[in-house]
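Need tokens for this chain, all 143 residues.
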Amino acid sequence: MKKIKNFKGVDSIIFMCYLHPKKKNFREWEFEIDGQETENSILFYDTFENGGKKIQRELFEFLENFYNRYVLPKLDDNNKLTMYHGVRQVLALTIKDNTPYIHYQNVIEAIDYESKDFCNDGWYKITGYHKEDLLRMFNEYAK
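Here are the structure tokens for all 143 residues:
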């Protein structure tokens, strides 16, 4: 059984969760490897597949909690949208150049031509013990 020790050798992996706020339990996951496949990128993919719905739920909870604790308080008042506003949002774990990030996208679409859409879309680096938590989470499902 191989374990993931770090994020090295990962050019770009995206674990993207599309949320449907009207159906709070409906989540659609998409996985993508950009760049060269490495041992670590394949291990991340395999553990995500092995974990099935359980790792999806755990990863979503991790990302949502991280967003609410560290990202949301730093946004200006016009962009403080939660994951359950709007029509459809994205909450993703992105590993880019050996570093994990949370990618969030929340949109409230205007219903008329006079109003503006509200949107927050951004990236936030995951550091410290949160990186270790991610590695532990994925390694629980390594086979």
